[in-house]
Each structure stands twice: as structure tokens, then as C-alpha cells.
Amino acid sequence: MSNPIKSSPVNPDSPLTYKVVFQPSGRSGRVKAGISLLDAARNLGVGIESICGGAGTCGKCQVIIEEGRFSKHDLNSSPAHASPPSEDEQAICSKRGLTAGVRLSCMAYVQGDLLVTVPEEAQANRQIVRKAATERVIPVDPIIRMVLLTIDPPVLGDRSDQERILELLESRFGLSGAAFELSALKALPAALREGQGEISLTIWNDQVVIRVQPGLHDSPLGLAVDIGSTSLAAYLCDLHTGALLATASAMNPQVTYGDDIMSRISYSVEIPNGRERLHRAVIHAISELGAQAAAQVNAVADDIVDCVLVGNSVMHHLALGLDPAQLGHLPFAPVAGGPVDVAARDLGLKFNPGARVHVLPLEAGYVGADNVGVILAEEPHKQDEIVLIVDVGTNGEILLGNRERLLCTSSPTGPAFEGAQITHGMRAAPGAIERVRIDPHTMEVNIKVIGQEPWSRELPDEQVQARGICGSGILEAVAELFVAGLVLPSGKFNPKLNHPRLIRGPKGQPAFVLATAEQSATGSPILLTQGDVRSVQLAKAALYVGAQLLMKERGVQQVDRIALAGAFGSLIDRQRAMIIGMIPDCPLDRVTAVGNAAGDGARIALLNKSRRVEAAQVARWTEHITSPLETEFQEQFVAAIPFPHASHPFPNVRRMIAERLDAAKAGEPYSKGEAENDK
Amino acid sequence: MSNPIKSSPVNPDSPLTYKVVFQPSGRSGRVKAGISLLDAARNLGVGIESICGGAGTCGKCQVIIEEGRFSKHDLNSSPAHASPPSEDEQAICSKRGLTAGVRLSCMAYVQGDLLVTVPEEAQANRQIVRKAATERVIPVDPIIRMVLLTIDPPVLGDRSDQERILELLESRFGLSGAAFELSALKALPAALREGQGEISLTIWNDQVVIRVQPGLHDSPLGLAVDIGSTSLAAYLCDLHTGALLATASAMNPQVTYGDDIMSRISYSVEIPNGRERLHRAVIHAISELGAQAAAQVNAVADDIVDCVLVGNSVMHHLALGLDPAQLGHLPFAPVAGGPVDVAARDLGLKFNPGARVHVLPLEAGYVGADNVGVILAEEPHKQDEIVLIVDVGTNGEILLGNRERLLCTSSPTGPAFEGAQITHGMRAAPGAIERVRIDPHTMEVNIKVIGQEPWSRELPDEQVQARGICGSGILEAVAELFVAGLVLPSGKFNPKLNHPRLIRGPKGQPAFVLATAEQSATGSPILLTQGDVRSVQLAKAALYVGAQLLMKERGVQQVDRIALAGAFGSLIDRQRAMIIGMIPDCPLDRVTAVGNAAGDGARIALLNKSRRVEAAQVARWTEHITSPLETEFQEQFVAAIPFPHASHPFPNVRRMIAERLDAAKAGEPYSKGEAENDK
To answer: Which of A351, A608, B26, B209 has the most CB atoms less than 10 A away?
Structure first.
């Protein structure tokens, strides 16, 4: 058999021990003379990277050695405190292009006291940091592992390549009962030939060899995908380092078949092959996103070996090809709500033929795997504070609670905040107005367009090149129009104001010009119509009522913290979200925009297998609260449609509006809060 | 949750015990008053069928109850010794159409001494009997199990259907960590609807729900397939009873691309897409055989949920789509030699979308999974006698040994014995001459054609309707020609004989008329040419040399027993196989024809999961002996080409030939040995 574990040049039965200190962890202890530094590190609980199982072939377990003087034995020890580099070690260091002076810990044996530095790239316990409401550290421990093996050419009487590899996986890596994916088995002979016996195996869950590649490979790619009703967001990660390598987004192509989840269900149920068509459309789009993201790092979709999907319950069912009919009527029972593991090829995804897909569980009928992603990212179930998490999407999902009790509900927000069903709405792409400021005194309009660093007033009009308005821009435009008095608390444009930008839109309805024809890339002005303002009102009212429902059930009058999540292009403007009354009144410094928490949660599950288990548990533990009776809901909903005004108990909102007006009066373009928010 | 386990009408804490005797097993013992007969049976180790886990819904656990008088408590017990049938029980008995008076053991509770008869259809420990060399009993314990569940319609707040089912599988059947195949999940809502909540699950290896059907189903179908180089044989089994339901066979369509394994390897390696083409051809043919076999029992290929494949190493690799190139040259190392489990759909098989395939392991380079099947069927590794097993096929495989040491080798027999490369050869199908007798004195020829019960001399010529000659017929024809002196020991037609049937064939070579133009369905005579005789000589010499090789290695001069296996249409004629020198000399009563042992072994692995484990072990344990050096082999091979004659040490063959001649002289159409062999 190839690669016998190299034995020490020092007698392994020697009674001598030496002190070894590992940096930067600072762990230290006495180890037997003659053992390898890799074994010493393992004995002392120091993680050093090695994908060849200490066989001396991968060159990953590099360390920098300094001699130490910690032991009394030290005077008796051999002249060097570590064995000198063997020819084999020098050959591997040269083959892998390692820096001179670096040692391989599997081939350096302890012969005296040692101070050993493990460089960052060789440290096995990697982690990523999620920077959101609170900084969270996520250990990188994916369900995928890589293994490097060197297999000697067969001789007469040898077992098959498959058997010899499985034996090595058991003897050297402790992986018993592993098996090959058929596609990996098919690729095996060519990989052995091309790699001259050296092959890298991609192994799923310590059980299945899903890919075989010639030579050394140690950066498997994974894709986390948030399937929104309107938009898809994909995150390509290096499963070894945990690094986010690329992102890609697209409209959900199912939009062609219906704007919201109810219309998707109808299409799926009523149109022949409707379900299959919706399934294939989203799967095709996810494959495309994977290919696009991979192309950004000079890789191909075939390199994607693991994938995590999240989405609301209907998106979840359609992505899996499951009948969503039951989700369309009481009691909204999903076909599958627990986690699902499936081969990517069985979904029709064009990733590696051996690639796996993990679909996070659902919480309940309408509270989907995307919301489980939000929980993974925001961890309300681990906190003392009562947090309200509003995930803004076409199907809004809301969480409220803490480690004691966590409630969830869903809210049919509609696609306004994703730029759909809005006159000049578009998704967050170059040309989209993403930020809007209207001076309440001068009424000057200042916009920021995706793809342009400066705001419009710093640019000649013809350079603004606005093409439409995306979700975050729509929210800001409505809030600014309201603060400026151009829109009344009822949502109507103020008929008493005579502003040059207040015009009649294409269908004769009142509209506001956000970008003039000169600022527009289309030659026509970009408008926000009365109907658009109404869409925003309906959306924000739905979210507000959902939050109220949970607060009532949880018996709280106010919350300690609010997190605003959503797959917007840019972060949602928390101040303006409060001004329009999307969320309950709360001190602004207790409101955080956390970006696409669902997508972040998918990424966390992609990078850490134990978080998948946690997701399944917390999904079952979270309580789903359904909306109250039709009439009661209707009353609350209607009451939530106007914007917060004097007759509403919104002290924080009133203060923010006052500050905004004062700042404008003083000639400052932004209030203090805004400036901070814009960071 | 539906179907709570029915509780006993008797106080379960009662200290009373009663004696219960189960027939026909005769097992008996005392059980607590009030427990169900199903639980009583389990406590006493009596297997009673139940696929609903004792929920009282499947109606499988039927028993016949007679009161007993075994206990002194009996006088004090309630008037009836078993609880009377409840309304629920009566309803199920009626729904499942059970005989009146039959009780369901899960709903009949012990209230006194009882004598319980378990009818055959309710006995859980089923077995099949293989009637071959020795009768062997194979317990039916497939990797597939069926479970019947009744799921209540969901109510608000219920978990998903998937989760509720997985919970029931864990709580009622002890199957923890099970998961759904995606195709089963897709079928779930419709099955629940159609079955009004009652569904049957097909579960693979207690782990994966691979199929969901509405209502009660308990006879899953499995297909065992022997993939020969020339012919395919498929066996459709009821995985519940173990019964062989149907068989189907076909030519291996790969024959178009090359007659033997070497030419298949060449095609695969040299022709673009060659490997894929060979793979698809055989997979398509196996799908067809599955559909044909299923149609014979009014089922469809979609009902096939498990499949076991065997074949020689090259057939094995091509069926899996693996590159067979390495099998074409030293050291003949297979890509995959261990057992392979794969989804049928991943091979392209058109069975149930959730169906599984198990491929038996290989023994070595050229000794394939078919030979592992032969071991499973013949069990040489469990015997004291030294047995020689010759599996006659295009790639012949030979086993020799016993429980101490088992050797194997392969032998390039060529396709003669499968009717290929023979002038009028055909596979064993209606019209094929399968038996041949030539009176050595009168030289009268008597043939038997598949599809006709009588021999030819009992029929008017025009009713014989011969179309060609299959493998068993070819072997007999050559042996008979030799015994009759029409063919010399060298294999040449005897030039000194002037027989009206000895003619010149189409290419001018000597030929013998087996069926006259009148007896032929084609209008032309069916011939056996000099070349055909030579093909048989080469084939039998290859097998003989292989057997000699193993005997030399094992250090034995003779064997205790010989088993002749092969996928012939009818059993191979052991006497004539000895006469032509295909096998070493041996008393005829120690030679047995065992039919398609490889196919039988596949069937055994299909019906019993532990035999799959045994197959993997014995495949590793069997020693592969490779042919000796080219020149030595060549010498032995050339020496084995003539038929056994005076100068050869074949006492048994000489006796058989003498008997055959004596019998013919006495006017008996068959010798004693033949008559026995023909049974």
C-alpha cells in the first residue's frame, strides 16, 4: 500500500519527553520524544490542517519551528530539537511551492523542546465572522471534506481501485463504511491516470465520495441560495476557508407565472404541467446563478459540490418539485417541512454530478426555510433581549422573542419592496434609484443610482442615468415625500402643494418625478405614482400588523431590539422604515438593518454542518402564530395603512420627523441620524 | 395522531399469566394476562406478519384461536380465553376480506390459556428453497420492507406530512433517522388523497422511503439479472413471499459491438462514446426485461423497487458505465470490485423512480459478480467436500475448493455454448434444437426442439419446425457425433464414413445435417459444420484447462463433486459434457447440472440482505488464480483440444461411451445413465 505513515528516526519507545509550545494558540505540553509535530499538535488539541492524513503528500501541515529551552532533558537531546528535513519532505515542499524554512509537521519529529508557529493557512479551526446586528463568529465545519490520497499502480492480485481507496479512508482517516457516488467512480480511472496516482476526494458527511480529481485540490465550492418569490440571491463560498467568493442575483423566473405565492399555487394546481414548469424555471435559474458566480472566480458550475437552499414554503415546495396545493388553503399543511437532503442532479441542478443539496426546514405553513435562515443568522433563540425581526420580501416573515419563547408569523407583503408592481420598479441593478432625499424646505430632490458613487446633485444631469427604482429607493422615496409634506398621512399626494415635480402620470393619476427626463437613461422621467405609494402602504401595513400580532401573543408592549432583514440591493433604511410605520415605534439606535439574513443563514448552514442540526431543532421549537379572524385582521390592517402622524403614539417617529425638518431648515442635507445611517 | 396502539380490555397490571401455545412452530410460554396475541408471539419469538406495526389496520397478523386448558388460573379467568372481536377488528377483517372466524392477533387479548395457529400467509419467517445440487433453504429477508400507515388529515398547527410520517416510523417501527426519496415525497400528497390517509411505504434498508402508494400494498417486486456476455437472464420475484413470479431473457445487445469481453473492451476504449453506447445498450435491455417480466404478472416496471445485478467483470463495469480499459491488460485491475449500491435511475434503468440496485462484488480481474452469485447459490465455502463448479458462458468461470480454501479462475470459453459464432446457432428460444441423440449403430438422428414436447422421431417431419441449435444442443450434438464415431477424437469428421447426413456445408467444409430441410422451419437443413465442432473443442478445452489449473494449485488429483452451471435454456447435459472432456473425469453420480447458478445467486441476494454482506466477504476470501505463463498454458490448451480417447486417463468417460454403444447395440434408444439424466 502506498504512503505508509512515516516513522520517526528516534526510537518511539524512548522514555524521554519534551515540551512543545504551539503559537498562536499558546497551547503547550510535554510530548514523547520522536513523535511527529502533527501528532504532538493533535495530542495537545491544536488543529493543524492536513488532507492527506499525515502521509506526507499534501504539504498542508506547514509550521515554523524555533528551538526552545524548556526541559532539563534538553541538554541531553540530539543537537537539533527537531529532525532535519528528509529528502521526501524537501521534495513535497518544493512540489507544493512552500516558503523556504517552512517544515511539514507530519515529517518533523520532536527531538528537543520546541516553539512551533502554525501559520494561518495551516490552522485547522477556521471561522468566518458575520457582521450584522451583533458580530457573530461561525466556525467553518462544512459537511464536505477533502482528502488527498496517493495510490500506487495496481499489481497482479491487488483489489480494485475502489476497494483500495475505501480501505485507505478507513485506515488513515477513520471513515468506515464510506462509498462512492457512481459519478465519482466513473471519473476514478482517468483521475488516477492524470494525477499519476495522486487524487483528491471530495467527501460528503464522511460517508460518500462525491468527486474525484487528479492531483491536489482543497477548495471545494458551495452555493447558498435564497429563493425569494421575486428575487434569487446566490452566495458562492470556499468551503475550506469559509470565504464568500462571489454573489449573484436574478429575478425569480417564476414571476412570469404569477407575482405572489398564491398565484404561484394557482398556476401550479390549475395549469397542466404547471408545477413542473415552475420547478424547472427556478432550478434552471439557480443553475445559472451558480455558473455566473463560479465564473467570477474562474471556476465552473461543475466545481460546486454542496448547496443550501432557503425560501418561503411555496418557493421551497416548488424548488423541490413538491405539490404546493395544500399550502393554499387551511390548515396550510406542507408536504415536507423537515430538512431535506437530496442529490443536486435529482433536482436537475447543473452542478457537479455528485453535488448535494440541503434544504433548510420550514417553520410552519407559511413561515419558510428562509425564516429558519434568519434565525440561524440572527440567533434570537440564544438571546435574553426580546428581538423583533422583520424579513421584508414579497412574502414577509416576522419573528419575535428570545431564548425563552420565539414566535413567528408570515405576512403577505406583496412585491412592492422588491421593485415589482411599481410603475418604474426594477430590481437592485445598475441604474436603479436606491436612495432618495427630498429637502422638506427647498423640495430639492437628490437621488443615488446603483453604479454611481456620487449623489445626483454632485453630477451633471446627463450622468445620473437612472433607469428605474428598486425596493430600498421606493421605501425612501415614500418616506421622504411624507416628511416633506408632499404626501399626506393618508397616503394621498397633497393637493394643496404646487410642486414642479408633482405631475400627472401616464394614466392621469398624480405622480412625483424622482428623476427628470435629463437624469434618466430612458429619456423619460422616472416616476412614483399615487398607486405606487398605495402599494407601499399596503406592504408596510401588512408587516406592521404581523409584528403587532406577535407582540400581543407574546404579551409585550415594546421590543428591546428590531432587526430589519431583506434581500434588498443595499441595506434597508431603518429610519425611513420607521417613519412610514413599517415597524413598531422604537428608539432608532435599537433598530438595525441586517441585510439578507435568510441568505446569511443559508451560508451559515453551508459552512457548518452542526448548524443544520440546530436549524431543524429551532424550526420545530419556534411557535407559529396564525392571523386572527378575517374581520379583526381587516380592521387592524386598515388602521395600519396611514403613515404615523400626530394622532398615532409614535414618539420616536415624531422626533425623527422633527429632526429631519430642523436639519433641512438649517440647510444641512442630512440629519445626524441620517448621516449615521448612511455609513 | 391516528391509530393509537389499541389497549387491552384487561387490566395490564394484572398479575395473572396464561399459557399460550403457537402452532405450527410449537413455541409456547406463559404471558401476562391482557397483552395482545401479537405481543405474546413476539415475546415467545414467534414471527407474525404485520406491516402496520400492530396498529390494527393492515389485517396481516391473522391467527386462528382455540381455547386451551393449561393453567390452574384458567378456572378463574373470564369466560372467553381471548377478548371478543371489537367493532374495529370486525371492520378491518371485512375490509381486507379475511375468512370468517380468523382473528387479528394485534386486537385479540389474552384472557386465558390459548392454542393459536398462525396460518402460512401470516408467518413472518418465510423462506424459499433452491433445488439444485443440494436443497438449500433461503430465509426471505429482503432489504425492502413495506409499512402501512394511516395518517389523519392535518389540522392547523400540525407538522408537515413528511414529518408526521417519519415520527410514526420511529415511534411505531423503530426506524430512526429515516428519510424520503424525493420521488416518494413528490408522490405523497396524491397518495394520501387517493388512499384517504391510508398509505403503504416501501422502505429500503430501514433508511429510505423509496415509494409511497395509496392503500394497502405488500408485495414489492424485485428483479435479479444475470448479465452474460451473450445473454441476459432476468428473474422477477415477490420480495414479500420470495416467490419467483416470472423470468425473461434476451440476447445481450452489446453482441452487436463485439462477441467477447476483449472485443467489448476494445469497442469501449477505441470508439468515441463506445463505453456510453455499450452501457446504454445493456441498461435499455435490462429495463425491457423488467417490463416484460412484470407484464407477465400484470404489473409494470414501475412496480420494481429493488434489483440485483451480476455479470463478469467487463459486463459489470459496462453496466455501471465504468471504464473497462484496465480489465484489458495486466494486472487486470477493476475500477470497482466491492459491492455497489446505486439508485436505479442513476443507471438509467426505467424501474420505479425510487428503485435501488445492488451490484454483487467481483472476485478478481476476470472473475466477476456472476461467480459470486454462483458461490451464494452453491455455497462451496460452507462445505467439507471439494467441489468443482464450472460456470459455462462466453467467459467461463471456475471455482474449486471447500470451506478451507476456495480458488477461482476465468476461462475465455467463447460464445459457442450460447449458440453464437455457430453456423446455425441461436439462443434457447422456440425452434432451437436443445437435445440431440444419434444412434451409434443405426446412425439415426433424433432431436428435440424447444416448444415441442415429443422428440423428432415421434413427429411427422414437417411438425419438427427446427430453426437452429442452441448451446445445450450443440454440446450434445458434438458428443453424440463423437460417440457414434462420426467425429474422430481429433475433432475431424471421420472421412472413412459415408453417411447420408455427412455433407459439404455452404463454404465447402464438412457438415452434419441435424435437421433435414423437411424438419426445418426455414426450408434449409440445420447443419453442424466442421468449424462448429472446432469452436466447441476450443471452448471445452478452455474450461478443462482452467479446472486443471485450480486442481494443481489446490493439490488435488480428483474432486468430490462437480457442479455444471450456466444460463443454458435447459440444464447442461452432464454426461455429454464429460464425454467431450469439458470437465475432469468423475463418477457421473457426482456430477450435477445446477442451471443458472449465477442468476440463482443474484436472486438469493435480492431476497436476503445478509447474503449481500456474505457475498462481499466471500468475494474477498476467494483466491484468484491466474493462468500460467503463455507457453505453458498454450501446451496444456492444445493437449485439451482432442476428445477423451484411449490414450487419455478418463475411466468414467470410457465407461459411459461403452455403455452408450452397448445400449444402442441392444436397440435401446437411451442408456441407463441417459434416461436418468433426461429426467
So the answer is: A351
DSSP structural state of residue B291: H
Chain A residues in contact with B347 (beta carbon < 8 A): 182
> What's the pLDDT at A428?
81
Judged against a pLDDT cut of 80, whether residue A108 lies above it is answered with yes
Query: How much is the mean pLDDT over chain A?
Result: 89
User: Is pLDDT of A426 > 70?
Assistant: yes
Instruction: Tell me whether B204 touches chain A (CB under 8 Å).
Output: no
Q: Which among A556, A552, A546 has a CA at the least distance from the CA of A586?
A: A556
Look at B337 and A159 and tell me if their CB atoms are within 8 Å: yes
Q: How far apart are the C-alpha atoms of B179 and B175, rounded to whole Å? A: 10
Share of chain B above pLDDT 90, in %: 69
pLDDT confidence of residue B3: 41
Residue A656 contacts residue A673 (beta carbons within 8 Å) = yes
Cell numbers of A12, please?
A: 518511539
Residue A481 confidence (pLDDT) above 70: yes
Question: How many residue contacts between A and B have a Cβ separation below 8 Å?
Answer: 126
In this model, does residue A412 exceed pLDDT 90? Answer: no
B160 interfacial to chain A (CB closer than 8 Å)? yes
Query: Shortest Cα distance from B170 to chain A (angstroms)?
Result: 15
| A183 within 8 A of A190, measured Cβ to Cβ | no
Return the residue matching grid coordinates 483466491.
Answer: B623
C-alpha atoms less than 13 angstroms from C-alpha of B224 in its C-beta half-sphere = 29
First vs last C-alpha separation in chain B: 60
Question: B322, B362, B409: best mutation site toward chain A, by most A Cβ within 10 Å?
Answer: B322
| Cis ω for the linkage preceding A272 (within 30 of 0) | no
What was the pLDDT predicted at B72? 52
Q: How far apart are CA B83 and CA B91, in angstroms?
A: 16
How do strand B208-214 and strand B198-204 relate by DSSP bridges? Answer: antiparallel
In what side-by-side order are the strands of the sheet with B179-180?
A: B144-150, B198-204, B208-214, B179-180
Helices (H), B195-337: 261-270, 274-296, 313-320
Q: Above 0.90 for ipTM, yes or no?
A: no
